[in-house]
Amino acid sequence: MTLHKRKVLFSATVYAHLAAFHKPFIKLLQDKGCEVYAAANPDHGRKEEIEELGVICWDIPFSRSPYDRSNVWAMRELKRLFQTHRFDLIHVHTPVASFLVRYMAKKCGQGPVLYTAHGFHFYQGAPIQNWLIYYTAEKWAARWTDGLVVMNEEDYDNGKRLGFKEGESLFFVHGVGVSIDQYGVQGDANIRGQLGIKNSDVVITYIAELNRNKNHLFLLRNLEGNFATCL
Q1: pLDDT digits (tens, 9 = 90+) for 51-82
Q2: For 42-186, where are the E strands, in sequence order?
Q3: Which own/partner pairs from 206-211 qualify as long-range (CB within 8 Å, at least 24 positions apart)?
Q4: pTM surpassing 0.85?
């Protein structure tokens, strides 16, 4: 008698996101006997890294912009995916893609949906447009979301405002995970030595993709005027 393998779907705007952050989770689920699928846009590359893990990939033309008409085609492809497969668990990432997947998953009678927010686009000081679009969208999507994972206290508070329950459907984790052995004090000392940086020197790192959306210029422009006050 052949036992049914549990099917798990990972989804994000692009495969590059899944390759950068979710390989360990994919391998963990595979080790537990799950059959893992991925749904994302292949435009930014790294799809082959996901396929090399034995993941079944389903290309979806997601766009980061909520105004992009390609999201209409994404909805059609999602419907076809969900008519072909029923997933025991769906784990979604990135705002627009996660909204579309959550909606279609509930409409098509899929299993539980977990959403990891890598930083809500609405926050204190964010443009009012972000609140009107993204907060409203998340308020709607909360009804299709079985669990929300957030990575900072402000998102945790906003998760409660969205209607999620602490310890039941709302979970707070400290980032996506860091290897302490690799990035501990000893590792810091080695890097300082290689770069000729004194132990007394203040070092600020900003780890993010180099694009306008990550806003590296904001940090650089503010360092000049505010760095002295931090000492």
Answers
A1: 999 999 999 999 999 999 999 999 999 999 99
A2: 56-59, 89-93, 113-116, 147-150, 170-172
A3: none
A4: no
